[in-house]
Amino acid sequence: MKTFLKSLLCALALFVSVAPLAQAQNGPLRIEITDGVIEPLPFAVPNFVAETSGMEELATNIARVVAADLNGTGLFREIPENAFISTITNFSSPVQYSDWKAINAQALISGAVSMNNTGEMSVKFRVYDVFSGQELGNGLRFRGTREGWRRIAHKVADAVYSRITGESGYFDSRVVYVSETGPKNERLKRLAIMDYDGANLQFLTDSSSIVLAPRFSPSGDRVLYTSYETGFPRVFVLDVGSATRRVLEDQPGTMSFAPRFSPDGNSVVFSITEGGNTDIYLMDINSGSRKRLTNAPSIETAPSFSPDGKRIVFESDRSGSQQLYIMSANGGQAQRISFGQGRYGTPVWSPRGDLVAFTKQNKGRFHIGVMRVDGSEERLLTASFLDEGPTWSPNGRVIMFTRETQGANGSASLYSVDVSGRNLKPVRTQGGGSDPSWSPLQQ
C-alpha cells in the first residue's frame, strides 16, 4: 500500500499536498487534494464481467460510464483497452498485477453485472492498488433495476473516487438549469433537469414564460426559481417528482427574485423590490411568514446561506459599486468581503464552508472566482466575454457556470472548472443552457 501511496503522490503532484493517509490497518487510503493536478493518475477499467446471459452490453456500458466519470475529473487518466496485456473474464480470478503494472496502471477497477429471476440487477466491483498488489478496501455491491444502470454506474464511480481521494464524489447528482433555444433576441427559456453529465434530460416547464435562476433544495426534491408568468418576476417552488409548482411570493406592487433554500430546507431567502427599493427577506416556506433582513436604499440581492445556516453572503451596491457582504442569517450589520478591482456578484457559499464562489466583472471581462469567507486569497478561475452564475458540486470540488459568447449570434452554454482553475470544459446539454444549479448527491 505504501508503494501505491507513493505513486499517487507523484502522479497528483501539486494537486495532492499531503497524503499520509496511508492507512491505518485495513482502512481506506486517504489523500488530501488542495491544489491543481499536473499528472493525472493512470487507471484501467476493463469491461465488467457479465455473469448472467444478456448482461454483456450493460456490463460494457457501466464500465464506460465509470471510466468517463473518473476521466472527467482531471485527476485520473484512463489507459485505453488496446494497451491491456491481460483482461478480466472472471470477477473472482486472481489479478495478474504484473500485467497491469507493465502498462503503468496504478489503479485497477474490476466489476461484474448479473440479473436475478425477479429482474433485480446486481453490480459489484473491486479497486486494486496495482503497485502494492493489494485490493484497496473491500469490494462493494449495488442493486437496482435495469433502467437504473446509469445511476448505479455513477455510484460505483463515486465509491472509487472516494476510496482513492478520501473525499465524497459528485457523479450521482443532477443539475437543473435554464434550457435556451431560438435566436438571441427571441430566446425561449424553460427549466430542464439532467444527470450531472447531461444524460436523462427532462423539461420541467414549458417555454411560455421567462424563467430564471433555478435552485435545488438541500434534499434535491424541490426547485426554487423566478418566473414572469404573472407578468412580474415571482418566486415559485416546484416539486421535481410531479413537476407541480406554486408561487411563494405574490404581493401586489412587488417583484420577487433570486431565491435560495436554507440548509434545512424549511426557509427561503430572496429579494423583494417594493417602492423602487430592493432588500433581502427570509420566508418560512410552510407558513409563508416573512422577515426583512436588510433595510438599505441600495440593491441587496443574490443571498446564499453558509452550510451551517448561521450566515448569509449577498451582493449589494451600498458602497457605490456591486460588492459582496456577509451578515447573520437573522439580518443586521453586514461585513464587506470583496475589495478587489471591478464588480462582484452572484456569490455562492461552498458546501465545505471555506470558500465563496462569485462572478467578477473587471476591465470588460467576466470571471468566475473564489475567495475565503473573510475575503482573503481571491483567485480567478476563468475569463471570457461573459462567465457568470457559479454553482458548486456536492463535494465542493468543482464549479459549474454559464458562459455566453459574443455577438448577435452569441449563445449561452454550461461549463465546469475545478476549484484550482484546471480542467475547464463544456457540459453537455441539448441546445443552449444557463443558470445551472447542482443538486446534492441523490439518496
TrEMBL record:
<keyword id="KW-0732">Signal</keyword>
<feature type="domain" description="TolB N-terminal">
    <location>
        <begin position="29"/>
        <end position="136"/>
    </location>
</feature>
<dbReference type="GO" id="GO:0051301">
    <property type="term" value="P:cell division"/>
</dbReference>
<dbReference type="InterPro" id="IPR011659">
    <property type="entry name" value="WD40"/>
</dbReference>
<dbReference type="InterPro" id="IPR007195">
    <property type="entry name" value="TolB_N"/>
</dbReference>
<dbReference type="GO" id="GO:0042597">
    <property type="term" value="C:periplasmic space"/>
</dbReference>
<keyword id="KW-0131">Cell cycle</keyword>
<dbReference type="Pfam" id="PF07676">
    <property type="entry name" value="PD40"/>
</dbReference>
<keyword id="KW-0574">Periplasm</keyword>
<comment type="subunit">
    <text>The Tol-Pal system is composed of five core proteins: the inner membrane proteins TolA, TolQ and TolR, the periplasmic protein TolB and the outer membrane protein Pal. They form a network linking the inner and outer membranes and the peptidoglycan layer.</text>
</comment>
<dbReference type="InterPro" id="IPR011042">
    <property type="entry name" value="6-blade_b-propeller_TolB-like"/>
</dbReference>
<dbReference type="InterPro" id="IPR014167">
    <property type="entry name" value="Tol-Pal_TolB"/>
</dbReference>
<protein>
    <recommendedName>
        <fullName>Tol-Pal system protein TolB</fullName>
    </recommendedName>
</protein>
<dbReference type="Pfam" id="PF04052">
    <property type="entry name" value="TolB_N"/>
</dbReference>
<comment type="similarity">
    <text>Belongs to the TolB family.</text>
</comment>
<keyword id="KW-0132">Cell division</keyword>
<dbReference type="GO" id="GO:0017038">
    <property type="term" value="P:protein import"/>
</dbReference>
<comment type="function">
    <text>Part of the Tol-Pal system, which plays a role in outer membrane invagination during cell division and is important for maintaining outer membrane integrity.</text>
</comment>
<feature type="signal peptide">
    <location>
        <begin position="1"/>
        <end position="24"/>
    </location>
</feature>
